């Protein structure tokens, strides 16, 4: 079964995006924005809860408890997406695979694309962000060599999320709007396939 096909659902895509964006969260302001977005995205979120991970460390490999969590200083807001554990695990595997693909992208190419995207979205209204996101993804895809063995749509999603995370780590206050832009971009692209 291909877990990746589930990204056409907005909730599934949102879970994958959250899981991808929270990995290696070291910027405090960025982490706070993730927590705020998590609480806002799911109206059923009951606010922060205290939870401890088995080893006391922040999980950064995509393996999360049964609900989407964003960890910061031991406070874990829970975004309950009310799905079965197998489905959540499948979506988390997708996020992990996307992070592995993103790690294969050349750092200097992604860094330049991130700077271009950030510069463009800082000077334009939100309704144009999807255009700039698409433009940078297409431009990087034309430069990337060595990922031909990977499925094209996965590389596109991994690159999209890498650019979004890069911009949001530099400018955390853009997270909410850029998250929704990426969510719309990914779900519309998945439906078009």
From TrEMBL:
Record-level GO BP terms: apoptotic mitochondrial changes; positive regulation of extrinsic apoptotic signaling pathway; positive regulation of intrinsic apoptotic signaling pathway; positive regulation of release of cytochrome c from mitochondria
Compartment(s): Cytoplasm; Mitochondrion outer membrane
Record-level GO cellular component terms: cytosol; mitochondrial outer membrane
Keyword Coiled coil tagged: yes
Matching Gene3D superfamilies: Blc2-like
Sections of the chain in a coiled coil: 88-115
Entries under PANTHER family matching the protein: BH3-INTERACTING DOMAIN DEATH AGONIST (PTHR35447)
Protein name: BH3-interacting domain death agonist
Organism: Anabas testudineus (Climbing perch)
Upper classification of the organism: Eukaryota, Metazoa, Chordata, Craniata, Vertebrata
């Amino acid at each position: 079964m291909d877990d990746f096909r589930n990204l056409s659902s907005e909730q599934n895509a949102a879970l994958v995006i959250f899981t991808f964006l929270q990995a290696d969260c070291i910027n405090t302001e960025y982490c706070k924005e993730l927590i705020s977005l998590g609480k806002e995205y799911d109206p059923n979120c009951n606010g922060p809860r205290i939870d401890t991970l088995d080893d006391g460390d922040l999980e950064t490999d995509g393996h999360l408890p049964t609900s989407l969590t964003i960890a910061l200083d031991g406070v874990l807001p829970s975004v309950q997406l009310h799905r079965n554990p197998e489905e959540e695990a499948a979506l988390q595997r997708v996020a992990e695979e996307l992070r592995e693909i993103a790690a294969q992208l050349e750092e200097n190419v992604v860094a330049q694309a991130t700077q271009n995207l950030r510069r463009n979205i800082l000077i334009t209204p939100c309704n144009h962000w999807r255009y700039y996101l698409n433009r940078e993804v297409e431009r990087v895809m034309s430069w990337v060599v060595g990922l031909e063995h990977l499925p094209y749509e996965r590389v596109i999603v991994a690159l999209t999320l890498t650019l979004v995370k890069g911009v949001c780590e530099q400018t955390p206050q853009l997270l909410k709007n850029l998250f929704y832009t990426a969510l719309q971009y990914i779900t519309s692209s998945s439906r078009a396939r």
